[in-house]
Specification:
332 residues; mainly alpha; Rossmann fold; Tyrosyl-Transfer RNA Synthetase; 2 domains; three-stranded parallel beta sheet; two-stranded parallel sheet; 14 helices; 53% helix; binds adenosine-5'-diphosphate; binds tryptophan
């Protein structure tokens, strides 16, 4: 067992880089909510603004996106009374520990990261922050004695980096004075296989970068526009008149048993099926959309209070671990 409450420790992060969409929700945020409400974990949910700084290099935009993400978290039901909601840059131990890790992590090892390899394959100019991304993420995770890290498949490698870095640190500094056998606990990723990848309206992975999203807090009009834009080519006779992309998104909102009669009765009638999908998405989004509208009315106050409380708690929690690491390396 992990801490005073006897519960396992869970931490995850989201970058404030744009408007949340239903792929983010079903791929990550919903799990945060379920795990928080299970009562089985001591939960930390972090807004990874320093990671986002690799992409968002404009102060107004950074403020806005951070604020939006706090509101999104609260609107879906993450609850500061049940989980610590905080911002990475408010807890300077993250960057401090990342520097310590930088001194034991090698360049060839970081060059094997998927994100780095993809950027290089595209001949992009890669900043040091992007190259070091996995090191900061390891610090995020290891500072909290984290047991589990719920993430999408695309982040699995980063959790493996955190494990490797913990093991290497523990090995190098195992004989240091004042340190027990290990400084860092090895975290496990928690990948939810059945959510896998949510498709966008064009059938590719739903992503802000592809412009193929259904926003998580979309209005009825926005939902209608997005759903009417779902590409239906793949639903020809070879698929029994079932539009694959419509069905793949619909599955997120209704069970396959519920959908079967609807799709049977409407083979080839794409418009009817899309209208049914609009209804089901709207029924799901409406309550959280309305909650968010309420939160927006007092946004400044809500956001600053949430982040101030989260920062206070997170800073307190990480002190002992940071000190242990600093002792292990001999700077204190
Ligand atoms: P985007 O691709 O829109 O930029 P991010 O990379 O910011 O999304 O992802 C934030 C979180 O949402 C990650 O945990 C990621 O695994 C999850 N996620 C994003 N898109 C999808 C998707 N289409 N299906 C499932 N999960 C997703
Ligand atoms: N890299 C994660 C993403 O892009 C965000 C993140 C930053 C994170 N630090 C983390 C996730 C720590 C889990 C744990 O989605």
């Amino acid at each position: 067992m992990s801490n005073k409450t006897g519960k396992k420790i869970l931490l995850s992060g989201v970058k404030p880089t744009g408007q949340a969409h239903i792929g983010n929700y079903f791929g990550a945020m919903k799990q945060f909510l379920d795990l928080q409400n299970s009562g089985d974990y001591e939960c930390y949910f972090m807004i990874a603004d320093y990671h986002a700084l690799n992409l968002i290099q404009n102060a107004d935009e950074m403020h806005k996106l951070t604020q939006e993400l706090v509101l999104d978290f609260l609107a879906i039901g993450l609850d500061p009374k049940k989980a610590v909601l905080f911002k990475q840059s408010d807890v300077s131990a993250h960057t401090e520990l990342a520097w310590i890790f930088d001194t034991i992590v090698t360049m060839p090892y970081l060059m094997r990261a998927h994100a780095y390899k993809d950027a290089e394959a595209k001949n992009k100019e890669i900043n040091v922050g992007t190259f070091n991304y996995p090191v900061l993420m390891a610090a995020d995770i290891l500072l909290y004695n984290t047991d589990v890290v719920p993430v999408g498949q695309d982040q699995k490698q980063h959790v493996e980096y955190a494990r490797d870095i913990a093991e290497k640190f523990n090995f190098i500094f195992k004989d240091s004075a004042n340190v027990g056998a290990t400084t860092f606990k090895l975290p496990q990723p928690l990948i939810l296989e059945n959510v896998a990848t949510v498709p966008g309206i064009d059938g590719r992975k739903m992503s802000k970068s592809y412009n193929n999203t259904i926003p998580l807090f979309a209005t009825r009009e926005e939902i209608t526009k997005a759903v009417m834009g779902i590409v239906t080519d793949s639903g020809g006779p070879e698929n029994g008149g079932i539009p694959a992309n419509v069905y793949a998104i619909h599955k997120l909102f209704k069970s396959e048993a519920e959908l079967k009669p609807l799709y049977e009765a409407n083979k080839g009638k794409y418009k009817n099926l899309k209208e049914a999908l609009i209804e089901d998405i709207d029924a799901f989004i409406k309550p959280i959309r309305e909650k968010r509208v309420e939160l927006v009315k007092k946004a400044d106050k809500v956001v600053s209070k949430t982040l101030a409380e989260g920062a206070k708690c997170a800073n307190k929690i990480v002190q002992a671990k940071l000190e242990q690491a600093k002792r292990a390396v001999g700077v204190i």
